[in-house]
Specification:
With 334 residues, the chain is an alpha+beta fold. It is built from 16 helices and 8 strands. It folds into 2 domains: 209 residues, H-NOX domain (Alpha-Beta Complex), CATH 3.90.1520; 100 residues, Arc Repressor Mutant, subunit A. α1 packs parallel to α3 and α2 packs across α3. The two termini are 44 Å apart. Strands 4-5-8-6-7 form a 5-stranded mixed β-sheet. The chain has a 3-stranded antiparallel β-sheet with strand order 2-1-3.
Length: 334
Amino acid sequence: MRDETVSSGFLLGLLGYAVTRGADRDALLAASGLDAAALDDRDARLPYARYIALMHAARTATGDPALALNFGQEVDVSDISIVGLIGKASNTMLEAFEQLNRYVRLIVDVELTGEDRFALKRDGGGLWFTDLRANANAFPELTESAFSHIVAGPRRAGVPEWLREVRVTHPKPSHAAEYERIFRVPVVFNADRNAMRMEESIVSHRVGILPRYAFGVLTEHAQALLSELESADTTRGRVESLLMPVLHKGEANMDAVAEKLGVSRQTLYRALKDEGVTFEQVLDALRHRLALEYLRGKKTTVNETAYLVGFSDPASFSRAFKRWTGKSPSEMRD
């Protein structure tokens, strides 16, 4: 089972929207267990549970049970995620749908019933855009916001109406009238799937809101972010995520990491071995990478960098850095 996460930008989008609806920002942060500083990097990953808590707190604070639907309708995805910008740089709606499916994990990374989050398939009733996330009824607000985002974005850009029907697996809510207002098509509750039936000709409709050269720049950055996210699905990635906050504390040892992962030292050893690395290699490579980032940023001294990456002795750090790069830390910083 993957660690379910959301981007900081997505959380900020919801937080900002709730504030415009009268909610208190600090109260929402406190209610959802969020630290304002953790939202500074829009690409940072935060627990999906924090998004769920924020949505519930925002619904209560605004008194709007349809907040998720309205969030999707009012807030453009391109304002909160690179994925929305890629959609605007796509040639056609079909390409925009394909890119959304490829990079949607950068917005929300949740458990799925298959390999992909979305499927675009024809059946006897037409062309269906289906959301394949697992346990959707546990948090239907994500279905609401996802579908309203997907519908409102093209509508905002002047794309001809393409939606013909909406089906959702959750029961009919008290705010069902908002579904009709926002989607403007028949909505079926307690359905067999979470899906939207589309006008088939829409897939060839041209988009191109942003210049085509932007598509290459944006997808290159998105691919780098996706690769980083996918690495967190590995044992190595999970080990690195646990090591980073404790490197400077001198607590970077295999026993402590195994305990936090809830496995034995031997199980962790075998899992890393299956990925072709040892714990010592992961730790060494992480120290190397972070040391380069600190020194190239020129915001820390050599001694401060040594401390931050877990060396109590600057001389030991200098020897390690020479082994990694062939240069001294001071040469790299200069």
